[in-house]
Design brief:
With 278 residues, the protein is α/β, with parallel strands linked by helices. It is 40% helix and 22% strand. The protein folds into 2 domains: 3-141, Rossmann fold, CATH 3.40.50.620; 152-275, Rossmann fold (3-Layer(aba) Sandwich).
């Protein structure tokens, strides 16, 4: 993990995400891209030309980013090169372009709004669109979360067939290895459910793939799962929740509901989404 991009909109949550991203970059000696996207104003014949205003705004915001970068460099001596970038246009499109052009390995974003609920934050901000579409992992950082290292990861993992062609286990092994973290693999099953032969086979395959990883496996009933996972996170002192970004998975339904009501999943633990390739 060599390059980390953090999106900044000069709010308190995004500044908190910057501190979190800087902590990761410092530990990994990675480079950091501090990025701000500015929407183009709608031109009108009744208004004065906006070109000069936009140039001034870009210069002003670039200076704000540089000021933060200077502070970060002092606080985190092992961090790699820091670049400050302000681009005009849509945030989602700009980030997608930067991921491709700058070989970004990780995106970090803060929670916007007045809540620390991860689910609400994802629904109500650009983080939802970016975490759904991003080809690289995205970490969403709650407002009250402060970086103190990532030593304990909870990985929400579905029982599903044909895992041999899926890259999630490779990715989670790499992530756990990068941070030298303990990996907690969480499976969810319906209440009173007995594992089928296919699920037992899947479990055996997962354990075989993770045999060289410091990990523990937990199976929880689906009933009241939000509170169960919250309790688990607190009890096990989890530093990061990782979920698969797969449309069919239970965890997709948990964090990305559409027609179902929003699940109150309040946590001070950051959430990482992984893009699953088959």
């Amino acid at each position: 993990m060599k390059t980390i991009l953090v999106a900044l909109d000069f709010t308190e949550p995004s500044d908190n995400a910057l501190e979190f991203a800087a902590g990761i970059a410092n530990d990994l000696k990675a480079s950091l891209i501090i990025f701000h996207s500015e929407l183009m104003p709608v031109a009108s014949y009744e208004l004065e030309p906006v070109a000069f205003t936009m140039i001034s705004s870009v210069e002003h915001n670039t200076n704000l980013l540089k000021s933060r970068a200077h502070k970060i460099k002092k606080l985190y001596p092992f961090i790699g090169p820091i670049s400050c970038n302000v681009e005009l246009g849509d945030l989602n499109s700009n980030i997608e372009n930067y991921v491709n052009e700058k070989s970004v390995d990780l995106i970090v974003m803060g929670i916007s709004g007045k809540t620390n609920s991860i689910s609400k934050a994802v629904f109500g901000s650009n983080a939802l669109t970016i975490s759904k579409k991003s080809e690289v992992p995205v970490i969403i950082v709650p407002m009250n979360c402060k970086y103190s290292g990532i030593k304990n990861i909870a990985y929400a993992c579905d029982y599903r067939e044909h895992r041999e062609g899926v890259n999630d286990l490779i990715e989670i092994k790499n992530i756990a290895g990068i941070f030298k973290a303990i990996l907690n693999v969480i499976h969810i099953i319906p209440d009173g459910h007995l594992l089928s032969d296919v699920e037992v086979e899947t479990d055996t395959y997962i354990e075989r793939q993770l045999k060289n990883v410091n990990h523990r496996t937990f199976i929880f009933p689906r009933n009241n799962i939000a509170n169960t996972i919250l309790s688990f996170i607190n009890k096990q002192k989890v530093d990061l929740i990782v979920i698969e970004r797969a449309n069919h998975s239970f965890f997709h339904e948990l964090f990305y509901p559409s027609t179902t009501k929003e699940i109150a999943f309040s946590s001070t633990v950051p959430l990482m989404t992984l893009n699953i390739h088959q």
